[in-house]
């Protein structure tokens, strides 16, 4: 089913504490990649994090995006920029669907 990976990513994001901050090693481990892979995507602007005290920190939203990038790159042998563009589109469609469902609920419409 096409919605399963998106559902799993959304479920992961909800399970993770939005206030929690992950380290570079934590993020790399969460998407089964090396820390160097994360650094390359940070330098290219494909992932975002914060540096505090010389150490990187990441939110749960970054975990979801990093896992999506890793999956797209490995499954389709996509270069990082193409994977990021695809992830951007997936995230945009997900946000639009969520807004549509909220609007339908507000108007009392059944999908």
Show the helix and strand layout:
Layout lengths: L3 H12 L8 H7 L4 H9 L6 E3 L2 E3 L2 H17 L3 H28 L4
Antiparallel strand pairs: 1-2
Report the uncertain regions.
none
Q: State the domain count.
A: 1
Radius of gyration: 15 Å
Question: Within the CATH hierarchy, at the fold level, what is the topology?
Answer: Multidrug-efflux Transporter Regulator, Chain: A, Domain 2
Helical proportion, percent range: 55-70%
Structural class: mainly alpha
CATH class: Mainly Alpha
Can you tell me the CATH architecture? Orthogonal Bundle
Q: Which term fits the overall shape?
A: globular
Average residue-wise pLDDT: 87
Number of helices: 5
Sheet bearing the most strands, described? 2 strands, antiparallel
Strand fraction: 5-15%
Query: Separation of termini?
Result: 19 Å
Side by side, the strands of the main sheet go 1-2
Tell me how many strands there are. 2
H-E order: HHHEEHH
